[in-house]
Write a structure and sequence with these properties.
This protein folds into two domains: 1-328, ANL, N-terminal domain (Rossmann fold), CATH 3.40.50.12780; 333-430, GMP Synthetase, Chain A, domain 3, CATH 3.30.300.30. It is 32% helix and 22% strand. It has helices at 8-11, 15-36, 38-47, 68-73, 107-123, 142-154, 166-175, 185-197, 219-229, 342-351, 386-404, 431-434, and strands spanning 89-92, 102-105, 131-134, 157-159, 180-183, 209-213, 232-239, 244-250, 257-259, 264-269, 283-289, 300-306, 308-309, 321-322, 333-335, 338-340, 358-365, 368-376, 409-413, 428-430. The strands form five sheets. It has a nine-stranded mixed sheet with strand order 4-3-5-6-7-8-9-14-13. A four-stranded mixed sheet has the order 19-18-17-20. A three-stranded antiparallel sheet has the order 10-11-12. Bound molecules: adenosine-5'-diphosphate and zinc ion. Adenosine-5'-diphosphate is lined by residues 93-97, 142, 213-216, 235-240, 302, 304, 324-325, 328.
């Protein structure tokens, strides 16, 4: 299949051209926020930086960072850089971590968002003949409206199902001709399981691609979903503060997500020192919005951990790629002094043939951290003897120990006993936090 681009001249522009756009737009944005948002004026004055000091992308590192806490402190509209009369839409984060934050969009901001979502849809091979089945939640969460806007932009048929009511989702997948499914990977997995449980052959569905993001997921999970739904599954990344879904998007190569660099500048930094890292080194992802009018956050600290890849991509796009974030720095668990990401545990489980239906329970007993992993047995294991189940548990424990470097207790539980998520999955229960530890 020939590669399709929504905005070819932009998506395949030369690196010099992209740099030029970035410099010009950064200068303009810095002036805009300095003139219109008190926090930026104050921070820049404190740091001794004037808008005139910012002449190109090279000067980006002179600018102070922006943090999620700044949005909470300015709740609701304190960081808006335009009058409310210019704000057409509000969205709020899904509130996975703490108090929700609010962002606004001008007409221009919404148009940019539609365009970047359109780029993602074209990259998965969709066009005006496609049916875009959106099962991300519609509402204050950015997921639903983001992909919906992209579908409208390319002239495809949007099916705004929103999340939930899985039986109805499946009926619609069968009857409405959905060709592209958009939802969280955990919900895609659940839909896939239900399709299997109903004895429906996925080959009979017109579905060809999936756009799954908003939460971390592993390559193993991607392969499972692709197989179970008989589609190609694409990753998409975004966050409310920067835009919503499609800040970066995956192409047919599926080796990292292209960052929409004409609208956002990406950096990786050492989260402890704030120092900018050379490209290719793993660090915290930091984004600067350079075309937004209402909420153009400067050097926003995402707390997502990833790597930037500047190598040219086979697909022809020239935007740099970011790796799948392995999780947020605040998802990282420190257990007995060792850093553990839920995604590492997921990798082990899926490699051993389990489905991604698991829960991680961390606690502290007699001053020692404990790690318990509950995972659902597969249907065929369910009829096995207790001794056999114990053997499976031991096997998983030994795999986990060799990958994580610390021991975990594995408990195999009955199929379908772990609660499913229709949006972002909650995998970790850290009881240490409940007792203020
Ligand atoms: P909340 O912060 O309440 O979860 P958002 O919907 O804005 O609200 O979540 C954005 C976050 O979701 C990102 O910072 C990142 O941690 C996570 N995320 C989004 N897309 C992906 C993805 N493709 N892979 C991994 N994590 C993702
Ligand atoms: Zn590519």
């Amino acid at each position: 299949m020939a590669e399709c681009y929504w905005q070819k001249e932009i998506e395949t522009a030369s690196r010099e051209q992209i740099r030029e756009w970035q410099s010009e737009r950064l200068v303009k944005t810095v002036k805009h926020v300095y003139d219109n948002v008190e926090l930026y004026r104050k921070r820049m004055d404190e740091a001794g930086v004037k808008p005139e000091d910012i002449k190109s992308v090279d000067d980006l590192k002179k600018l102070p960072f922006t943090y999620k806490q700044d949005l909470r402190d300015a709740y609701p509209y304190g960081l808006f850089a335009v009058p409310m009369s210019e704000v057409l839409r509000l969205h709020a984060s899904s509130g996975t971590t703490g108090k929700q934050i609010v962002v606004g969009y001008t007409k221009h901001d919404l148009e940019v968002w539609d365009d970047i979502a359109a780029r993602q849809l074209y990259a998965v091979g969709a066009d005006e003949n496609d049916f875009i089945h959106v099962s991300y939640g519609y509402g204050l969460f950015t997921g639903g409206f983001g992909l919906h806007g992209g579908a409208g932009r390319i002239g495809a048929t949007a099916i705004p199902v929103s999340s939930g009511n899985t039986d109805r989702q499946i009926t619609i997948l069968q009857d409405f001709g959905s060709t592209v499914l958009c939802c969280t990977p955990s919900y895609a997995m659940y839909i896939a399981e239900q399709i299997k449980a109903k004895g429906i052959d996925p080959k009979t569905l017109p579905l060809k691609a999936g756009i799954f993001g908003a939460e971390p997921w592993t390559e193993e999970m991607r392969r499972q979903i692709e197989e179970m739904l008989d589609i190609k599954a694409y990753d998409v990344y975004g966050l409310t503060e920067i835009m919503g879904p499609c800040v970066s998007y995956e192409c047919s190569e599926q080796k990292g997500m292209h960052v929409n660099e004409d609208h956002f500048i990406i950096e990786t930094i050492n989260p402890e020192t704030g120092e900018v890292l050379p490209q290719g080194e793993q660090g915290e992802l930091v984004f600067t919005c350079i075309t937004k009018e209402c909420c153009p956050f400067i050097r926003y600290r995402t707390r997502d951990i990833g790597i930037i890849n500047t190598e040219p991509c086979e697909c022809g796009r020239t935007f740099v790629r970011m790796s799948k974030p392995m999780g947020r720095s605040d998802d990282m668990m420190i257990i007995r002094g060792v850093n553990v990401f839920p995604s590492q545990i997921e990798t082990v489980l899926l490699r051993q043939g389990y489905l991604p239906n698991y829960k991680i329970i961390v606690d502290r007993v007699n001053n020692t951290d404990t790690l318990e992993v509950q995972v659902e047995m597969t249907e065929d294991m369910f009829s096995d003897t207790v001794t056999k189940v114990k053997e499976y548990e031991k096997a998983l424990e030994s795999e986990l120990r060799s990958l994580l470097g610390i021991g975990a207790d594995v408990k195999l539980v009955a199929p379908n006993s772990i609660e499913r998520s229709m949006g972002k999955a909650v995998r970790v229960v850290d009881k240490r936090k409940l007792i203020g530890g």
